[in-house]
Amino acid sequence: MSTTGQATTEAGASGLIRVPRQIIFGAGQRRGLGAVTAALGTNALVCTDARMAGAPEFLEIRENLRAAGVAVHVFSAVEAELPAGSIADCVDEVAALGIDVVLGVGGGSCIDHAKVVSALLVHGGKPGDYYGEFKIPGPSLPVVAVPTTAGTGSEVTPVAVIADPDREMKVGISSPHLIPHTAVVDPELTYTCPRSLSAHAAADALSHCVEAFTAIRRPPDPALSTERVFVGKSLLTDSYALSGIELIGRSIVAACSGGDDRSARAELHLGALYGGLALGTAGTAAAHALQYPIGALTHTPHGAGVGALLPYVMAYNLPARTAEFAAVASALRCPLDSDATVAPGAADSGSAAESGRARAAVRRVAELLGAVGIPRDLAELGLSEDRLDWVAERGMSAARLVDNNPRPLDSGEMGRILRAAFDGDLDGLLG
Ligand SMILES: NC(=O)c1ccc[n+]([C@@H]2O[C@H](COP(=O)([O-])OP(=O)(O)OC[C@H]3O[C@@H](n4cnc5c(N)ncnc54)[C@H](O)[C@@H]3O)[C@@H](O)[C@H]2O)c1
């Protein structure tokens, strides 16, 4: 690890990243959607929700597609958190229309909807046939993803997260065939996000960057890319993750203040995009494993839950990822405070200083998330104390995420993280 936190290319280090064919970023870039889409198809399905369908920006996008010679069919009944039923309804509605390109315009729910529908229109069946990893047998229709929240990074990831009424917790479809062909990331589309939505989305994005940057590092086995969708940290995802932390760290408070800081909105959206690029191959870990059961119990937004958990998971993981967390402190411009100061000539001053920096990073993440209104503990999030054991047990069942955590976990350790997160006792976990 270099002083800037960039992973060095020591012998044996390896990298893997899977990304869309095209990523277009910048204020106003949605105005190119007509030409971008026309290069992929002439008969477009646009998946969005009722709010976006009535927004002036959407009418402009629709007109832009028409002007480029693209026929447009709009499905505007996507629901937040993506209940499986709306996906089936959409497929039934458009199956006979000869759709050849699919747009997802909205938050993560609309983009995930577009990704799954594009697969079902080619391969048939229902979402449940593809739960898990590598179940989609081949390419889907090309997807153009246009996010209106700065958070999930779904516009570049190989996963869609669905709420299936037959399951207690949300479930994922993960496949490289779900990666959108093109992402058009226009920060202007996030200007209408209210404060709390901005904060939840930003907390999600920060957790993607941190969990991807500090995930397990697997040995460079040439079979890794075909055996796992999410492979752990690597040289290629580390750069995005760390740059994303820096961008989000310096923009999150201004971008979530409800004000009109356009440059903060742009930095936050770029940071969220980088989070998607990092998590899409590295994957996430314990904060996500624990959010799923907590979200099922509390019905709180995903970003609020991962944000509330993140500092505690970082504190638990610190001994296994001290160098990385010290790099996070630099990315977040943490001052060299007492935590990080070492007496001149002290024995082992290098590692003591690094450990101090790492702890400062955990505290700074907690401070930033608290500043934008993310609950500081799980009691504030609305979790009942008597459900902690159940959450620990269900969190452990998310094997893909538990295996990706850098420090080994069992239900006792999950319980320890949850206890501290419920009590708001970050110092207790930091030791
Ligand atoms: N596929 C992935 O890689 C990935 C990663 C993380 C989360 N997710 C999933 O994404 C979903 C969450 O997505 P999200 O946080 O973007 O929210 P969302 O798409 O669920 O939308 C939440 C609400 O925000 C509104 N909204 C969206 N954009 C807005 C805007 N610009 N102005 C005003 N209101 C706006 C929507 O209409 C909706 O009511 C969850 O289902 C989560 O599981 C997916």
UniProtKB/TrEMBL annotation:
Its EC number is 1.1.1.1. The keyword Kinase does not apply. Residues 20-187 form the Alcohol dehydrogenase iron-type/glycerol dehydrogenase GldA domain. GO terms for molecular function: alcohol dehydrogenase (NAD+) activity. Residues 201-422 form the Fe-containing alcohol dehydrogenase-like C-terminal domain. It comes from the Bacteria. Keywords: Oxidoreductase. It is an enzyme of class 1 (oxidoreductase). InterPro entries: ADH_Fe/GldA (IPR001670), ADH_Fe_C (IPR056798), Alcohol_dehydrogenase_Fe (IPR039697). Belongs to the iron-containing alcohol dehydrogenase family. This is Iron-containing alcohol dehydrogenase. The lineage of its organism: Bacteria, Bacillati, Actinomycetota, Actinomycetes, Pseudonocardiales.
